[in-house]
Structures are given as C-alpha cells and as structure tokens.
Design goal:
The protein has 948 residues and is α+β, with helices and mostly antiparallel strands. Helix 13 packs antiparallel against helix 15.
C-alpha cells in the first residue's frame, strides 16, 4: 500500500511557473504567523511558518545533515482553475515560466541552476503548479532571486515569439506522452465520461490542441495575473539554512511584489452517476484493457483513508484478491486497484490488462472482477489486512523523511491544500484508526452496486472485445460562440530598492566530503561495502551477481530475466502470497531482477525489522520452489507484455538502435527479457539450471547503507556463510557491425504522429578518470544539459521536439555515443539535419570558454547533492565496487575538471564526433516520412524489429 500523505494525483510535466501581482502598494514587513508553532515543535518535520504582508506564505525547515537546500514555490492553481475553451493554460504557463523574466535572460533559469550544481523542474496537476530546485547551500540567495523575478517580473518578458514557440513545445509534449502512446487517451476519456461538462476535472491538465490554437499571448498573461500572485503561493525552503539570513533574503526579494486578486478556496465537487457508462476506445494495442472507475469523495474526507485501505486489500500487490483471482489465475497479465484523490474529487479505479492467451474478452474480465468483489464481501477484512496497512504507514513515513526535497515538498503541499504544513502525525492517526467495519462500510456505500465508468480499450477494429456495447455518448464540447480574449495585459508596477539587474554571488563553496565507508568480506568470500549513517533508522541493501543476460544460453535469451522473476515467486516454505504478506507486515521489500550485466537483489527494511527481513531473504535466495504453475504464468505474462511493447515507438527504436550498434549475433542487441522466439525455447529446467550455475557467491558483491555498525551488519549477513557455488566465465562478444558511411534505418509505424530518432555510433566503455570521463565533459554543452546546443536548437528555436539530448553511454565492456529525440513527423528530416549541423559545428569550432565554465561548475558544484539519501550513497558504493575504482577517484575527477581546457576537449570532439559513420534510426510513418528522408542524401534501409 502507498500511504497518500499528500495530493499525489500529479501530472508531472516539465517546466516552471509563477505569479504576477496586481494592485496594492508594496509593504516591507512580514507578519509572523507561527514562529514557534507548538504543533511544528512536536511534528515529524520541524518547521517555521510566517506570512509576508503581500500574502506570500513562507515555510522554513532546517536540516543541516547535508550542505544543500531545496526551494519549492507552489501556486494554488492547476487546470481546475481554467475556463472552458482555454484548457491547458496552467501547464502552458509552467513552460512559460522558464522562458526568462525581466531581469533573467531567455533560457537562463535552467542554465543558472545547472551551473550552480543543482537540479530543477516544475509540475502541474489539476489543483496546483509547483517549481522546485535543489542546489548547494551557498546558492540559496541566487535561487530566491530567480524565483522572485519570475513571480513579480515575468510579464515584461512574455513575447509573441516565446508564446508561439512554447505552444509548439506543448503540442509536441502531448503528442509524445498522449497521442503517440498506447492507452495514452485513457485518463482523458475517463474524465470526460465521469465528470459532467464544465466540471474542472472533465478536461485533462495538458489540455486540447484546439484550445491551445485558439488563445492568444494576452490570454496567457491574463491567466498569470489572475492566479500567480504571492497571496496564492507557498514558498518552502528546506535544508542547511541560516534562518535569520534566509528570512532577510525572502523579504528582500519577495516583499515588494504586490498581491494579486483575492483567491478563494475551491469547494469540493464529488460527482455521482445516473447510470453505469460504458465507453469503448479503439487503440493501437495488443492487450485489451478494462478500467472501472467509481466516483467517491474528495481529499481528506473522513472516508478517504478506509477507501485507500480497501483499494490495497482488493488490488495492492501479491496479497490482494485481484492478484489471486486475476493475475495468478492467468485471466489478466496485470491488475490493480487504486484510489487517487484530488482536491475536488476522488476516484476508485479497478484496472486490468486481459490475457489474450486465456481470453481477450473484457466481458469475461469484467465478470471475474465482479466475482472478486463478491468474494471480498463474503470474506470481509482479515486481521493481516490491517496489520499490513499499519506496517506500510510506519515504513512509508520513515522512508519519506530521507531527503530534504521530500520533506519540503510535503510541507508545501499540505500548506497549499490544508493550511497546515506538517500533517504526518494526523495522517498516521487517521490511517491507523481505520477499522474492518470502516472498510466494509465504504465498500457498501461507494462500490457495491454503484454506478461507474467502464472503459474498454481494445485493439483497432475489435470492438467486440469490449466489456459491453458503448452506451455513453461524449457530449460535444460546448465552446461559447464568442470567447472573450484578453487585450493589452500590463505588468503590475513594482517599487523596491533591490538591484535585480545583477545576479547575487554565491556564498563560500560548501565542503563536501565523500562518505566514509567500510569494507568486509563475509564467508564465502563475498565483499560488502557499507556506510553507517544515523539519519534514519532504515536499511538499504543490494546484492549484485555479475553476468546477468550475458550468461543466457544460446537461443534462449531471457533466461536470466525469467530466473529473477521466478526468485520473486513461491519458496519451499512460503507460497507467493504468504511471503508477500510476511514482508508487508514488516514494511519491508525484497526483489530480484536481471538487467544488463547484473542480476540484482534489493532489500529495504526498517532497522528494527532487518533480521526478520533477512530471514525471508534467506528463504528466497536458498529455497526457491520453482513451481511449474508459477513458471507458466510468468512466461505467458512476459510474452504478452512483449507483444504489447511492440506497439510502442520508443521500444521499437531502442531495439533497432541496439541491433544497429551491436549486430544480430550478440546478446546485448536484444532486450533483457529476450525475444518472442527465444522465450518460447526456455523451459523450467533451463531456469533451474541457470540458478544452480550462476546464483553463486563467486561473482557476488553487496553494498549497504544503514544506521547499523559494520559489526552488526556483518553479523546479520552471516546466514550467507552456507552459500556454495563454483566460479564461472562470462563469454565475450561476436564481431560487431562495421560501418564506413552513414545509413538511415527506418522502422515503419503507420499512423505515428511523431518520429522517434536515434543517431548512434559505438564508442568508449566506462572509465572514471580517463578518456570516457573526458568525453562526457566534452559532450555536456553539446547535448548533456537542458541548455545544450542540440536541445535549444530543436526545442526552443525550431519547436520540432519536446526535448533532445546527446550522451556517451559506457558500461564495463561496451560503450556508444547517441543523440535521441522525438520529432514531429513533418519536421523529421529537418530535425536530423539540424542535429548533424550542431555536431559538425561543435566538432570544428569547439567549446567556448563560457561553455567550459558552465560545464566545469555544473560537474564540480553538484557534489553537494550526490550523497544525500541512502539510495545515492548506495549508488556511490556500487560504482566503486562494479568498476573497482580507487578511493580517491572523485578527487582525481575534480583535478581533471580544474585543469582541462577547450583545446583538449575539441581534440576529443574531433576524435569521437565523426558524423560520417554515425547511424540514424527512425521509427515513424514510412509513407509520410520517405519523401523528406530521401532528401537527406543518406541511404535508407527498411528495418523490421516487430516479431510476428
């Protein structure tokens, strides 16, 4: 179960926001609201809250465990505040907020934060928009300058050109994430059927293209002035801060921005249906999908918590009834239940992907779901159901406090919607108070016999597979004949004594220490690297078995993948469900996976439960049952999933890329799970043999981060002393393809509205301080950052894509260079030409001194963010272990960064960016693309990666 501590029905989209004030003369003093809040002092996340005279709410959270700060600006405006006919404005403005403001040049927000060693983004959902960045602690004033400038001084920088450019970017984003994706219209169509016309949730956050085409730049400005004032915003700052200095900066940069128009809190608008509405959507899919959506309550309604618990019992993983009756029985490939809640309304969603090998009929799946609900009603709520819930709450609370960003985001969200930043204790109370009677009551009230939207997504031309004939007609969008368009929207007058023309200097660079770690060798010779950190009482542990898919028998690609899946199934002493139940009652997780060169075992636990968790790992690692029924079910699920993946353009592009790079004779050219034909060859005996030979301590290693001492962890892992197994060899590669000229490989995807494009060339394998590392530095200004040449050209200048990047990707034995992007179909050839122009120009002219400084700062200053969480510390240890790196490799990297010059980097560009032998892969509509691709002058070869 995932405890919903905040509004988490977020559509993450990728850019920023802010506000503009209205009238009201600026005032300088802040009103202290909660400088010593007793609730905060007793809270899980200590904070101080106060409000400026212009209405801006400020929350400060001090955490000096790492030299970094997280800044979040949340505006209480999302797509639910939009007018009919003007959908997508909130998300559109998220993009516009990164296009510069009066004192910040175009595209500089990303550049400034990246060069400061930080990261940033923005997101929009139906109810709020937020902008956030994590930076080294000495960069805080700079971030406040940036955020205040786009809050108070955005409108003077909004131009028609920027408006047109970002309108195209948003269209590209919609095409990439919605229109060109299987099942991409599922949520949009459900919203249109579930909510009455005009309800704020009846349109999607990304909006309709026709609305984006209809409006003007002045409409966008008017939307900003209405909703993005400081009185409708929450500024949250968490991390290693000086509270007094931070307050001074907040007042200095934000205090003079005038309030916007008054904003009232929206009233909840839960809905009811007069009948069950059946909707059928034909799509380019292989697996029919059934989604049943019941309207329920709204966020933080008293019935939200018991409905969440109900969703977990019905469809929350292997302990659930959906797993038992739908997935384990083979009726469905996947199935689950959730209860996403938003400010105005909640939805109880039952979702299942039919297994065509059993029955593709969604009517049959609908009956199975109905029978499962009846079984639940007869069975009731079991004691372990509530025990799992309580353990999940405790674990999710503790793990949620591991990062400053997580804590600050939680404070911001709770304040925005509830006016109280820290609701962790309250959420613990309300979920732990849920009783079996509560769960049964909400089931009978909101689910049993209630009306729902039943959406059937079926393959094109197969409407007979729908759960029932469509009985709902989507109403035509009632757009007013005359939509009022804004005219000449002016920026508010702001008078202050701050010199905003000069970006503040950063403070002294914080001292960042590489985490101290210890090393042990436990019988039978397994190396353990560990970090002891007392920040949270948790244990993160991962075990790696080297070889992974490279050990697959010839003709049986996917054996390592299937073996790992089987290790997640039944053991000798535990059924699948029983094992999942025991782990859930501990709030722990154990998972096996195989990807690339490694089979991995991941363990997560509260410290107090680590011994009980490792006892279950002992059972899973050494006593797998390898039941035939588990194997048959998993193999069929993987086969059906692969057939579905063949409908996804990005998947086809990656498969084509790998074959072009490494050839059809090498295992690395194919997915981890193998191919449809190779999977058919794998038997349960193959899995057992793979386990016996390769689940060996010979090439095993462990990393762990916890609050336990080296001695305690080593003692807890003593059960591994019984592990036996011989060493084994990892075979080399067959010959790779050799290209002496450019080629374009075209994979036909009829009807595709975009083209997925890769430009690739085999290159360097990984090293930490050699030529590969230097090549990554060289690539950074070309395609390694948002402000890189390739991205700014294709996205910001031309409007051909939602994003484009280039990178050197290296592993232990292989590496390559690639450029990747999704281009509009009409501009595919033009986009490819622009990429080659940028690479060739960069290769010949080299990096500028300004770009060198940008790259150097981005790499060196980001150290403050590299070791914050247990997960980031574990990645550091895994890097050391996998590549046998020296302890001081980070210091060597810093020395390289400090001394490398543009001439050295250009020499690398000349050596590695030879476009004449780069290969182009395009996945798109062949009929549409061929005329323009032929104009490129590159030989075009049709390529097929879809298996029958």
């Amino acid at each position: 179960m995932i405890l919903k501590l905040t509004q988490n029905a977020v559509i993450a989209l990728g850019i920023a926001t802010i506000l503009a004030g209205c009238q009201q003369p600026p005032q300088q003093k802040a009103e202290a609201i909660e400088p010593a809040n007793p609730v905060a002092q007793e809270s899980y996340i200590p904070y101080e809250k106060y409000k400026l005279d212009n209405g801006l709410t400020v929350i400060l959270h001090k955490d000096d465990s790492d030299p970094l700060v997280h800044v979040d600006v949340t505006y209480h405006v999302g797509s639910a505040r939009e007018d009919i006919g003007k959908s997508g404005f909130a998300h559109f403005f998220e993009h516009m907020m990164f296009q510069g403001s009066e004192h910040v040049a175009d595209e500089q927000h990303f550049k400034v934060i990246t060069e400061a060693g930080g990261n940033l983004n923005g997101s929009t959902n139906t109810d709020r928009t937020n902008y956030y960045q994590t930076v080294p602690a000495n960069q805080l004033e700079k971030v406040l300058w940036l955020e205040s400038d786009r809050m108070g001084f955005l409108l003077p920088a909004v131009t028609q050109e920027k408006f047109e450019n970002q309108r195209e970017t948003v269209k590209n984003e919609r095409a990439q994430r919605v229109d060109n994706q299987p099942y991409g219209l599922r949520f949009e169509k459900t919203g249109e059927a579930l909510y009455p016309e005009g309800h704020p949730y009846s349109w999607s956050t990304i909006g309709y293209v026709e609305d984006l085409d209809r409006v003007s730049v002045e409409d966008l400005k008017a939307f900003f002035k209405r909703w993005y004032g400081p009185n409708n915003a929450v500024l949250t700052i968490g991390g290693d801060i000086n509270v007094a200095q931070t307050k001074q900066w907040v007042e200095q940069y934000f205090g003079s921005i005038p309030s916007g128009p008054e904003v009232t809190e929206p009233e909840p608008q839960p809905v009811t249906l007069d009948e069950t509405r059946f909707v059928t959507l034909e799509d380019n899919v292989h697996l029919p999908l059934l989604q049943i959506t019941f309207p329920t309550v709204y966020a933080r309604h008293p019935d939200e918590a018991p409905l969440d618990v109900l969703s977990d019992i019905l469809g929350g993983g292997k302990t659930s009834l959906f797993y038992k009756n739908l997935v384990k029985s083979g009726v469905a490939v996947q199935a689950g239940v959730s209860h996403p809640c938003r400010e105005l309304a909640c939805e109880f969603q039952l979702v299942a992907l039919a297994n065509p090998a059993v029955s593709g009929s969604l009517a049959d799946l609908d009956k199975a779901i109905s029978d499962t609900l009846k079984e639940f009603e007869q069975r009731g709520v079991m004691p372990d159901d509530l025990a799992r819930t309580k353990a999940s709450i405790e674990a999710s609370t503790v793990f949620g406090l591991q990062s400053v960003a997580g804590k600050a985001s939680l404070l911001a969200s709770n304040e925005t919607f509830e006016g109280q930043p820290d609701l962790v204790a309250e959420d613990l109370r309300r979920y732990l108070a849920v009783t079996a009677e509560d769960v049964m009551r909400v089931y009978r009230r909101y689910i049993k016999g209630q009306r729902a939207v039943v959406l059937s997504v079926v393959p094109d031309g197969q409407t007979e597979l729908a759960a029932a004939p469509q009985n709902f007609t989507f109403p035509g969008r009632e757009i007013p004949d005359s939509i009022t368009l804004a005219e000449d929207v002016s920026a508010p007058a702001i008078v202050d004594n701050v010199d905003r023309t000069n970006m503040p200097d950063a403070g002294p660079v914080p001292v960042v220490k590489v985490p101290e770690y210890w090393e042990s060798t436990i019988a039978p010779g397994v190396t353990v690297l560990g970090i002891t950190s007392d920040e949270t009482p948790t244990v993160t542990l991962s075990m790696s078995l080297e070889g992974g898919m490279l050990l697959d028998p010839e003709g049986k690609a996917g054996t390592a993948f299937l073996t790992a899946l089987m290790m997640n199934e039944s053991t000798v002493r535990y059924s699948n469900e029983a094992m999942a139940n025991e782990l859930a009652k501990l709030g722990s997780s154990i998972s096996f996976s195989a990807a690339g060169r490694y089979t991995q075992v991941y363990v997560s636990s509260l410290t107090k439960n680590i011994d009980a968790t490792l006892a279950l790992l002992d059972e899973k690692l050494f006593s797998p049952a390898f039941l035939p029924e588990d194997f048959s079910r998993l193999k069929e699920r993987v086969l059906q999933g692969m057939q579905q993946q063949q409908k996804t353009p990005s998947v086809l592009a990656k498969r084509a890329r790998d074959i072009v790079l490494f050839g059809e004779q090498n295992r690395v050219s194919y997915p981890d799970e193998g191919t449809l034909s190779s999977l058919q060859n794998i038997t349960l005996d193959d899995v057992k043999a793979f386990y016996q030979k390769y689940y060996s301590p010979a090439k095993a290693s462990i990393v762990t981060v916890s609050d336990l001492s080296q001695a305690n962890i080593t003692r807890s892992l003593s059960f591994l002393s019984k592990w036996q197994g011989d060493d084994y060899d990892i075979d080399g590669y067959a010959a790779f393809p050799d290209y002496d000229k450019q080629n374009l490989f075209l994979v036909d995807k009829p009807g595709a509205v975009q083209s997925v494009v890769y430009i690739v060339k085999r290159s360097l394998k990984y090293d930490a301080t050699g030529e590969y590392f230097r090549a990554r530095l060289m690539n950074f200004p070309l395609g390694g950052a948002f402000n890189s040449r390739i991205n700014l050209n294709l996205r910001e200048d031309k409007g051909y894509t939602y994003g484009a990047s280039s990178s050197f990707l290296g592993g232990k034995t292989l590496g390559w260079f690639e450029v990747s992007t999704d281009l509009t179909a009409a501009n595919t050839a033009a986009g490819i030409e622009e990429i080659f122009k940028e690479i060739n120009h960069y290769r010949e002219e080299g990096m500028t001194e300004q770009e060198l400084t940008f790259m150097r700062n981005a790499f060196t200053l980001s150290d403050a963010l590299d070791y914050e969480t247990p997960g980031s510390k574990a990645r550091f240890l895994r890097q050391l272990q996998s590549f046998n790196l020296p302890d001081d490799y980070r210091a060597t990297q810093a020395e390289i960064l400090g001394n490398i010059d543009t001439d050295s980097l250009q020499a690398l560009a000349k050596k590695h960016l030879t476009t004449g032998t780069m290969q182009v892969i395009v996945v798109g509509d062949k009929e549409t693309l061929m005329p323009q691709l032929n104009e490129l002058g590159i030989p075009v070869t049709s390529m097929t990666v879809v298996e029958p």
